[in-house]
Specification:
heterodimer; A: alpha/beta; seven-stranded mixed sheet; 7 strands; globular; B: mainly beta; 24-stranded antiparallel barrel
């Protein structure tokens, strides 16, 4: 009777070798997955010319890349990219960073992207992600969401939301990366 | 069974690991894997990532706003994605809960379980996905499978997807499966089968001779067909045989040269009597053209679109937001200020509309007379949509084809006029202001945002927004909005104040007041406060107060989010 009513949990733990194997595997996975840092996943997006680009193959000569997910209808996103525009020259001189602005505008607003970017005078690379494939792969919940990627394609820092002053955080992280080299 | 040990022993005792053996075993496993790393290319264990969104709303009684209080007294919408990637292989799941869905979300979603699962492998120019996937052909006019989780939109495909990139600049896609329709502790797909393929060529990459040409051209085209068991429909005195297979095809071209871009797409759908179009066999057609001009400091965009009988679903009996195969977004600009976006939002009338739009962005240069020290941003947008010009048919023709369509014209019944303009100026390092004006003409018979007023609503909206940096990292932003109209619910006013403490904190208060409602009992304040904490990829937000009823429309039909009162907690995070 007591055997029949034993819960699955207590049954499982009553088999010592099972408990040990699970512990070993779990510890192994934890130890080893800390080895692999998140890398930028491979998604095919189009640039302003209509040419297809593989996001995992984007490089900046070993210098960092900042990915900013934005949309023409997202006010904090535009504020962020406009604020970075004023600092871009200085950041590029100091760290060689390249900013890639990935827009999630779908067909409703995709035609405003190029005119808006030009009127704002942005000098960033722009990539189109109209069906959110890259956003999904990068686990982006909402825009704005910004990622800092080092020269080897590893994602080293990220931040969602934007408020005036957040650029200080990004600048600190950029300097940290440059100091590493 | 041994009586002494207190547990079930089915293995001989030497199989059990003593503490020393456990430690050695773990150590040896790790060493084996690590030394593997030294002898060969480093062992890649792959990477786990994911994201989570949890929304919980509590509902209290509030007779003043007619608040809705379901029996559960709260709504809970949550989902979590977990993905594993290793080299060219990826797999993942999404677990969802609707216990019960929050007000405004499709009420039929319920339970908790897996809503999405996939595995994907890329090799030899081929990418294959099995299980669930999202995909878009061209602009979506022919086919779009996508998700808009906050709005309850998700027509994910369930089946197989193949992408083939044989040469530089050439992409061929194939899809086959069913569409997501419902959720009841697990994914429930619609009845119909959707299958199709799409090809696209970026000529400048595909042909070496064209690599360096200034003009960039992309050509694309696709074919999609849906299968659903045929049936019979009784109309007047006729017995119509409903076709089991419905096909549609589309072609598109994108040209980009210097400052100019041109995009055009045409789509035709054959023989699709359905619940949306009144069971007619007339072919559906849609065409769009978009022109853009961009130079530093100036951007111009203009376009026109015609849609005629383009409701295309994998289940002919469905309507509203359910199992659409294609995606035809509204011609009007996506608005974000609350009174502009949630009272009279336009959505494409998929059974037929002619529309056009034009937009300009201009930055008055800094240093000029009007530009001041930082430059001034000016923008204007005009969009309009009318009914297509048709001639009704009679007798048998009417029953089968419904009507015949005349040439493109903008003279049909008015559906919407949306003119807006804005000017934005930075006055000093710490102060910025923006003024926006909206002139709306909105036909509530075509887009039923309300059943109380039937006709055209003429509304003028003014919005002033200010941004002030009190000191480094401390910013306050406030908005004042007013809406003037003699129709429907009358005048509104709204005020928002938001305080941001970079990089982690924010707090805001919003009030919406329908002071001009013809019914004095409905002149209510909807006061709502929220505060949040943000760090890295995590955001935690708490809100409390009266949530105004809102409307969200798609394809000419609208879903209302009822008024409610209470506490709300939102958690979003990714890992």
């Amino acid at each position: 009777m007591t055997l029949v009513f034993r819960t699955a949990d207590s049954y499982f733990n009553s088999i010592p070798i099972m408990k040990n194997i699970v512990l070993i595997i779990a510890a192994g996975v934890v130890a080893l997955s800390s080895y692999s840092q998140a890398k930028v996943p491979s998604v095919k997006l189009k640039d302003l010319d209509g040419k297809t680009v593989d996001t995992s193959k984007l490089t900046n000569n070993g210098k960092p890349i900042v990915y900013c997910f934005w949309a023409t209808w997202c006010a904090p996103c535009k504020k962020e990219l406009n604020n970075y525009a004023e600092l871009y020259d200085q950041w590029q001189k100091e760290t060689g960073v390249k900013i890639v602005a990935v827009t999630i505008d779908d067909q409703r607003s995709i035609n405003r992207v190029a005119p808006y970017v030009s009127s704002a005078g942005w000098e960033y690379d722009v990539l189109f992600d109209p069906n959110r494939d890259f956003s999904r792969a990068m686990q982006v919940n909402n825009v704005p969401h910004t990622f800092l990627v080092d020269g080897s394609g590893n994602i080293v820092w990220q931040h969602n939301n934007y408020a005036d002053g957040d650029e200080e955080e990004l600048y600190k992280e950029l300097k940290k990366l440059s100091a590493r080299k | 069974m041994p009586a002494n040990s207190g547990h079930f022993s089915f293995l001989p005792s030497h199989y059990y690991l003593t503490p020393l053996k456990k430690i050695s075993a773990f150590f040896m496993c790790t060493c084996a894997l690590l030394s593997n790393a030294q002898e060969q290319p480093p062992f890649n264990p792959g990477h786990i990532s994911g994201n989570v969104q949890i929304l919980w709303q509590q509902y209290s009684e509030d007779t003043l706003i007619g608040a809705n209080v379901p029996p559960e007294k709260s709504g809970f919408n949550a989902f979590g994605n977990v993905n594993y990637t290793r080299g060219d292989f990826a797999a993942g799941i999404r677990y969802e809960s609707y216990l019960s869905p929050v007000l405004g979300y499709p009420a039929r979603f319920k339970g908790t379980g897996l809503g999405y699962r996939y595995a994907r492998y890329t090799k030899d120019k081929l990418e294959i996905t099995i299980g669930n996937f999202y995909e878009q052909f061209g602009s979506g006019l022919l086919f779009r499978s996508y998700e808009e989780r906050q709005l309850g939109i998700d027509n994910a495909m369930d089946g197989f997807q193949v992408k083939f990139l044989p040469f530089d600049g050439v992409t061929i896609k194939g899809i086959y499966g069913r569409q997501r329709f419902d959720f009841d502790s697990r994914l429930i797909n619609g009845e119909g089968i959707v299958r199709g393929f799409d090809g696209e060529v970026f000529l400048n990459d595909a042909f070496a001779k064209l690599n360096e040409k200034k003009t960039k051209v992309t050509l694309g085209g696709g074919f999609v067909s849906k299968f659903q068991e045929g049936g019979v429909y009784e109309k007047d005195t006729l017995l119509l045989e409903l076709p089991a297979n419905v096909g549609a095809y589309a072609g598109r071209v994108n040209v980009q040269r210097g400052k100019w871009t041109l995009y055009a797409e045409y789509c035709e759908k054959i023989n699709d009597p359905n619940a949306d179009n009144g069971w007619i066999y007339k072919n559906g057609r849609a065409g769009m053209v978009q022109l853009g001009y961009s130079q530093k400091g100036l951007g111009i965009s203009a376009g026109a679109k015609v849609v005629d009988n383009m409701s295309f679903r994998s289940d002919r009996d469905q309507k509203l937001f359910d199992v659409p195969v294609n995606f035809i977004p509204a011609i009007t600009q996506q608005h974000t200020y609350i009174l502009v976006a949630t009272l009279y939002p336009y959505a494409t009338v998929i059974n037929g509309e002619s529309s056009a739009m034009g937009e300009i962005f201009y930055k008055i240069p800094k240093g000029s007379l009007l530009g001041g020290e930082y430059g001034v941003d000016v923008a204007a947008n005009f969009a309009m949509a009318n009914n297509i010009d048709t001639t009704g048919l009679s007798g048998l023709d009417r029953a089968i084809d419904g009507y015949s369509t005349n040439a493109f014209s903008l003279s049909g019944d008015k559906f919407v006029r949306d003119f807006n303009a804005s000017i934005s100026k930075k006055f000093s390092k710490s102060f910025k202001a923006k003024y926006s004006f909206y002139d709306l003409e909105f036909n509530t018979l075509t887009t039923p945002v309300t059943t109380e007023f039937k006709g055209i609503v003429y509304a003028d909206i003014h919005v002033a927004e200010f941004n002030y940096n009190i000191k480094p990292k401390h910013t306050v932003r406030w908005e004042l909005q007013t809406l003037f109209t003699n129709q429907d619910k009358g005048d509104w006013a709204a005020a928002l104040i938001e305080y941001n403490f970079s990089p982690h904190w924010f707090v805001s208060v919003l009030d919406q007041f329908n002071y001009g409602n013809p019914d004095p009992a409905k002149r209510v304040h909807y006061l709502y406060g929220r505060a949040g904490y943000i760090t890295g990829a995590t955001r935690i937000e708490v809100g409390y107060g009266k949530r105004r009823e809102g409307i969200f429309c798609i394809g000419g039909v609208c879903r209302a989010v009822p008024a409610s009162n209470g506490l709300e907690i939102v958690i979003t995070s990714s890992f």
